[in-house]
Amino acid sequence: MNEYILVTGGAGYIGSIIVEILQNNGFKVIVIDNLSNGKKEALSEDVKFFKGDFADTLILNKIFNEYKINFVIHLAASANVPHSLIDPIQYYENNTSKTVTLLKKMKEKSVKNIIFSSTAAVYGEPVYTPIDETHPTIPINPYGHSKLMIEQIIKDCRKAFDLNYIIFRYLCVAGATELHGEARKNETHLIPLVINKIINNNSNLYVFGNDFNTIDGTGIRDYFHVLDIADAHILAINNINEVKNNIFNLGFEKGYSVLDIINFANDLFKVNIDFKIKQRREGDPAILVASTKNAEKKLGWKAKRTLNEILLSTYNWQKNPKY
Ligand SMILES: NC(=O)c1ccc[n+]([C@@H]2O[C@H](COP(=O)([O-])OP(=O)(O)OC[C@H]3O[C@@H](n4cnc5c(N)ncnc54)[C@H](O)[C@@H]3O)[C@@H](O)[C@H]2O)c1
Fold first, then answer.
1. CA 170 to ligand 1 center in whole angstroms
2. 243-273 pLDDT, tens per residue?
3. Structural domains for the chain
4. Which mutation among 6, 33, 96, 185 tests ligand 1's pocket best, with the greatest number of atoms within 8 A of CB?
């Protein structure tokens, strides 16, 4: 098999685990990552790595001219909701505008298949829950808008030049493998922060908002394991002809509030985590829980790994990080 899969953002959290599972499944992988939020150590030596911007046309020309690329898995992005309100230009530039450059190069080089990592942030404040893919898309932060615009551009490219796409709208991704886990420079995600609090207890744990319209006032999210995301990508690649040009939510179909997660971790690890309540952050919806029936029906995918596995694998990763 002389075809390669190009993974943008492959040195990041989700990317490194997708790369690991692609390789376990016999795929050859090329990664492009500017290491703005990823780590070179996250890539094994047999991954072809290009350090740079995924919209750098010199690098893209080199990759597309030298290798037969069958799929692009496009994960590289700026992905911090509160930060997107402070610096929206970065989100429209790094996420939306640069993806246009990537798509332009894919068209020029006749690369036909893209799997795009979108987000439940495209839905905004839910009008019903669980959210299915036909739910209105009215983002409430620039991050969600930047991703929704890319979705539209990809759909238009489909019509114009036969691009095959899969758009995955992820809910909250968490968990780790033995080799990879969340190792960002500035962590903002709840589960790695909760586990860090248990292991190191070296910083405050903040709960942003206890006045949402939810059962305990804290935000409710749908957490699912990063290995389930990797499974979805393998299914999409192996069945592209049957499943192409679809949007799929990926989540566990169950909501946990921030306090639920803390209490769950308290029970699991026999601890009593100390936390502080802060004001809610602008741009955070009260509740985001997905219906993944579409992925189940068309892709044969359903999240399998439980919150228990998510917390334990994150704990094991943080106890023994490889980088
Ligand atoms: N983590 C989640 O819960 C979650 C939820 C919904 C969607 N997503 C999406 O999944 C994708 C991956 O998220 P993650 O959590 O692994 O984030 P991450 O920050 O760990 O990984 C992103 C990677 O992209 C790289 N990158 C960013 N801009 C780049 C550029 N211009 N050129 C080259 N590389 C660049 C970063 O260095 C990093 O390695 C993102 O598109 C994000 O929007 C994540």
1. 12
2. 999 999 999 999 999 999 999 999 999 999 9
3. 3-174+222-250 (3.40.50.720), 190-221+253-319 (3.90.25.10)
4. 33
